[in-house]
Amino acid sequence: MTRIRSWTEAPSKPSYTPPPGAVDAHCHVFGPEAEFPFSPKAKYHPQDAGPEMLFALRDHLGFSRNVVVQASCHGTDNRATLNAIARSNGAARGVAVVSPDISDEALAQLNEGGVRGVRFNFLKRLVDHAPKDDFLRIAERIVPLGWHVVVYFEAELLDELTPFLEALPTIVVVDHLGRPDVSAGPNGAEMRAFCDFLAGHDNFWTKVSCADRLSRQGPPYDDFAEAVAPVVESFPDRVLWGTDWPHPNMQDAIPDDGALTDLIPRLAPSSELQRKLLVDNPMRLYWPEEV
Length: 291
Ligand code: 0GY
Fold this sequence. Notes:
Elements: E1 23-27, H1 51-61, E2 65-69, H2 79-86, E3 92-96, H3 104-112, E4 115-121, H4 132-142, E5 148-152, H5 158-167, E6 172-174, H6 189-200, E7 204-207, H7 211-214, H8 222-234, E8 239-240, H9 257-261, H10 264-267, H11 271-286
The chain binds (1E,3Z)-4-hydroxybuta-1,3-diene-1,2,4-tricarboxylic acid.
């Protein structure tokens, strides 16, 4: 099978300079496959995109730290994510994907390796099953570790998932705003429903990320900026931002990480909002001992 590349090899240098200590709070690593094979259940087969590439991108864009989110192509084998964290000299932490029968010892090892959360994925094109009961059991198990939950779902699932989401006992970070239709603006039905949900649930945060996946217009992502800037303004202490590098499954519309970074001041226009989005908020979740 041909291995796909979904990232640009020469991202532009952004005009925007992130503040010192800025965290790219949503990115992944793929492999390297020879060391860390992909899951037999993987829905895509990417080329290697390992830690050195990730750290080079971090430096090129002007970030200081990464949060490596376990990608679905690695299933519940978190070794590639742990390897990236271990090679980062303390500049990366992670979010794992685990099975409900994981031992306490294995959870403790993940914690030791820099993991601070688990991800529950509801996208049918990425995972075969999204067992809510298992997810709730896992969520209960991570409470003593002080971890949080990351959930990835599409907007049409928000209503159906609400009882499950409300039962989660931790901080919960919703990936990419729950994938709303941003083309209808900040008052479009899906944006409104998601913002109402955030307003009603203080333990929910979101990543204002993936303009490339959500925009209908493409770069410079005006529709995304218009719809999403009010989210940062309304919930400045509960938002994160990430590149989503190496952009799983985006091989037909590979985004430029420099252009994505240049969106940040359009989402968070003041230096105070930028500092919360890129430094204070991710530090509270991933490096709380330094805050
Ligand atoms: C993302 C989005 C995607 C993929 C994954 O774990 C993954 O494979 O997260 C996607 O295809 O939408 O957040 O990286």
